[in-house]
Write a structure and sequence with these properties.
9-stranded mixed β-sheet, alpha/beta, 11 strands
């Protein structure tokens, strides 16, 4: 392989994609210029799949959409100004959706690498528009699980409503598997293997950084849902996900854009119009804040010894880490702070193995969550106002008020804040737009509001 020069590549190519119904393996093939092909594979358990006419066509459309969205992992290595689709053509609506995913989903990547991607990624669109029919999908939810508190709240809420569900995840995490098995529900573990050439490009100095993983996982789960013949793909993204980091001189950069409402709305509507009219893609937690989700989770201790929202576990600690919480990353900080108002202190300290709010060395990390002299971290954490309200709530409670960081907040930070902003109750209200099917939402609402 000749040396890769990210400044010299001219074209990124979506070479081809195919799906073998007898094995359940999808192949997604990409290339730069006339360079070597890079093949990603996605393996959906349950093969062989019997696909009739309309469903076979929907699977083909979902496969192409996955090919286009998953290409973001490879395109970012060179970000060339020209893009080609070799094997098929797409309509304008599909091109517009995918262009939006690349521009916004690579927002943090562009910011960190000093790149301007606006108007750079443009897909050729010359196929006629297509209106998707209903496929007669059965009522059943594929629910994404990530091992953290949010997906477990969704899983238990659907269980409470009597909705049939399969707990679904992508990749080989043993931590997620242990959590999924703890639910006692049917599970679906989808395999995904990135093209090995991508890691070689990274070694040779390719552009690298954050990509919209939730968009890719959403497209993978849509393909799986159509293969299984089920009508719902459910994620657990709360309304706080729509709020990015406010960067001085740059504006808003949202680390979790593909977890936000703008992506959910655009992607969900596209699926119903252009892939399958009776396929529902939604987040069950969209009308909730992070604090409201934390309150729901705290109602049961069934998952205390199994869940983990610490991203470092999924990067550096390998399989089945002994400690499910590193205690020093933004996710650990935020989850500890969000659960503290709703959980007895001994239970919370027992989950984390220590009291993060009584460690003065962690002040800078919590300041970022509070948006005090820093911006919100590039992580999937709640809004600054949620962290400020949670901290103010703890400052008023004797069991927390003497802990180092709570005391520091009360003495140094709280006097600079508007007292009206520090009450937790308004942040627990159900509000905002969502795509939860009406019949489900009406029954769910009473449970979440209680």
């Amino acid at each position: 392989m000749t040396a890769f020069d990210k400044h010299q590549v001219a074209v990124f190519r979506f070479v081809r994609c195919d799906f073998a119904a007898d094995t359940g393996v999808a192949q997604l093939v990409y290339a730069f210029d006339d360079g070597p092909e890079m093949t990603e594979t996605v393996t959906i358990p349950g093969a062989p799949f019997a696909l009739d006419g309309a469903r076979a066509e929907a699977v083909q459309r979902a496969l192409r959409l996955l090919h286009l969205i998953a290409g973001v992992s490879y395109y970012k290595a060179g970000v060339p100004g020209q893009v080609r689709i070799d094997g098929y053509s797409i309509d304008a609506a599909t091109a517009a959706l995918v262009e939006t995913v690349y521009l916004n989903g690579l927002g943090e990547f562009a910011y960190r690498n000093g790149l301007n991607l606006r108007g750079r990624f443009r897909l050729p669109a010359d196929a006629p528009a297509f209106a998707a029919p209903a496929l007669g999908l059965r009522e059943h939810a594929l629910v994404a699980i990530g091992g953290g508190k949010d997906s477990l709240v969704s899983i238990e809420a659907l269980r409470g409503l009597g909705i049939a569900e399969t707990v679904t995840w992508i990749g080989g995490s043993q931590l997620i598997r242990a959590c999924a098995e703890r639910t006692g529900l049917p599970i679906l573990n989808i395999g995904r293997s990135l093209a090995p050439e991508l890691f070689e490009l990274n070694r040779q100095g390719a552009w690298n950084g954050h990509i919209p993983v939730t968009a890719i996982n959403s497209a993978i789960m849509v393909l799986a849902a159509l293969l299984q013949g089920v009508d719902q793909v459910v994620f657990s993204n709360e309304r706080s996900a729509s709020y990015g980091s406010q960067i001085p001189g740059t504006g808003e950069v949202n680390h979790q854009w593909s977890k936000g409402w703008a992506f959910e709305q655009a992607f969900g509507e596209h699926l119903q119009r252009h892939v399958a009219a009776d396929l529902h893609y939604y987040s069950l937690l969209r009308p909730l804040s992070e604090l409201a989700v934390a309150r729901q989770f705290a109602r049961s201790d069934f998952y205390d010894a199994h869940f983990s929202s610490c991203n470092r576990n999924f990067h550096i600690l390998g399989e089945r880490p002994v400690n499910r919480w590193c205690g020093v990353c933004p996710k650990c900080h935020f989850v500890f702070l969000a659960l503290a108002p709703f959980m007895p202190k001994p239970r919370l300290v027992g989950i984390f193995g220590r009291n993060l709010l009584d460690d003065a060395d962690q002040a800078a990390g919590f300041d970022a969550l509070l948006e005090f002299q820093d911006h919100k971290p590039f992580e999937c954490v709640g809004e600054g106002r949620e962290s400020r309200a949670a901290m103010a709530t703890l400052a008023a409670r004797p069991e927390w008020s003497e802990d180092a960081l709570v005391k520091r907040f009360a003495e140094q930070i709280q006097p600079q804040l508007d007292a009206a902003e520090l009450t937790i109750a308004p942040l627990l209200a159900l509000e905002g737009e969502h795509r939860i099917p009406a019949a489900i939402w009406e029954r769910l609402r009473a449970n979440f509001a209680a």
